[in-house]
C-alpha cells in the first residue's frame, strides 16, 4: 500500500523528505482545504529533494463548481506546473447538480497528457459514484482520493470497501480525510491502494500581532505515529 503525504509548506517538504513515503501532494493553504502551489515552490521541491511530487490544482476555496474563467486559469496553472518535472496533478470539478464536469476535466487532461491525474475528494459529493468512477476510468485518470463518500474515512469505511470492489483494479482508490493511527487497521482491511494524510496540527503564529494566524503545520510526531501504524 502506497503512502502519500500532503505537503503545504517548504518546511513540510523538508520534514517528509526524510520519511519512508512514496509520494507527496504539494499545495498551499491547507487551512482552506489546499490551493494550487506556485511554480517556484514546486520547482524548489523538485530540485531539492528526491520526492515523487504531485501538485494540487485548485484556484480557490469554497467548493468545486467552477465558472469558465476559473477553468481557464486552472488550465494555465497546469501548463505552468507540468514542465517542472512533477509526476502528477490532482484535480476535481463538478456541475451544479454534483456530477463530474466532464468538459473541464477533459480540458485539463489534454493540457498535460503525460502526467498522472488524481481526482480529489470532490468525488465524495457525488451521489452516482459508480457512473463517476466509470467516467474517470474512461478519461484515463490514475486514482481517486476519497473519504468514502463521507466527511472522514472514519465514517466512510464501508463505502471504501465498495469502491475498491467496484474499481476491480481499473483505477486506484486512495483513502484520505481524517486519517488517524487507530484507523489504519480498518483502512488496510478495505483493500485500498494508498493512504493520504497531512500529519499536521493547528499552530498559532505571529501571536498578538496584526498578522496572527492559525495554520496547519507539520507535526513530526503525528507523521511518525501514522507511518509506524501503516508499516506495522
From TrEMBL:
Main location: cytoplasm
Pfam families: CutC
Entry keywords, A to Z: Cytoplasm
Keyword Cytoplasm: yes
Record carries keyword Cytoplasm: yes
Domain of life the protein comes from: Bacteria
Stored Gene3D superfamilies: Copper homeostasis (CutC) domain (3.20.20.380)
InterPro entries given in the database record: CutC-like (IPR005627), CutC-like_dom_sf (IPR036822)
Location(s) in or outside the cell: Cytoplasm
One annotated GO molecular function: copper ion binding
Family per similarity comment: Belongs to the CutC family.
HAMAP family (UniProt xref): CutC
Name of this chain's protein: PF03932 family protein CutC
Species name: Fluviicola taffensis (strain DSM 16823 / NCIMB 13979 / RW262)
Amino acid at each position: 500500500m502506497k503512502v502519500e503525504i500532503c505537503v503545504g509548506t517548504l518546511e513540510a517538504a523538508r520534514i517528509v523528505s526524510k520519511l519512508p513515503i512514496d509520494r507527496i501532494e504539494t499545495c498551499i493553504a491547507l487551512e482552506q482545504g489546499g490551493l494550487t502551489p506556485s511554480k517556484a515552490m514546486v520547482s524548489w521541491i523538485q530540485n531539492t529533494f528526491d520526492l515523487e511530487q504531485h501538485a494540487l490544482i485548485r484556484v480557490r476555496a469554497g467548493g468545486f463548481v467552477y465558472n469558465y474563467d476559473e477553468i481557464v486559469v486552472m488550465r494555465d496553472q497546469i501548463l505552468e506546473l507540468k514542465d517542472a518535472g512533477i509526476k502528477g496533478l490532482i484535480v476535481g470539478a463538478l456541475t451544479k447538480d454534483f456530477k463530474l464536469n466532464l468538459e473541464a476535466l477533459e480540458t485539463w487532461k489534454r493540457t498535460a497528457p503525460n502526467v498522472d491525474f488524481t481526482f480529489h475528494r470532490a468525488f465524495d459529493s457525488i451521489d452516482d459514484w459508480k457512473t463517476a468512477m466509470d467516467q474517470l476510468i474512461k478519461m484515463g485518470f490514475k486514482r481517486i482520493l476519497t473519504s468514502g463518500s463521507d466527511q472522514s474515512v472514519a465514517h466512510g469505511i464501508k463505502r471504501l470497501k465498495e469502491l475498491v470492489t467496484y474499481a476491480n483494479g481499473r483505477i486506484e482508490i486512495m483513502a484520505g480525510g481524517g486519517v488517524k493511527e487507530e484507523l489504519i487497521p480498518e483502512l488496510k482491511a478495505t483493500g485500498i491502494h494508498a493512504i493520504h494524510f497531512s500529519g499536521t496540527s493547528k499552530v498559532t503564529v505571529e501571536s498578538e500581532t496584526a498578522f496572527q494566524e492559525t495554520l496547519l503545520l507539520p507535526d513530526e510526531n503525528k507523521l511518525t505515529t501514522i507511518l509506524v501504524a501503516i508499516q506495522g
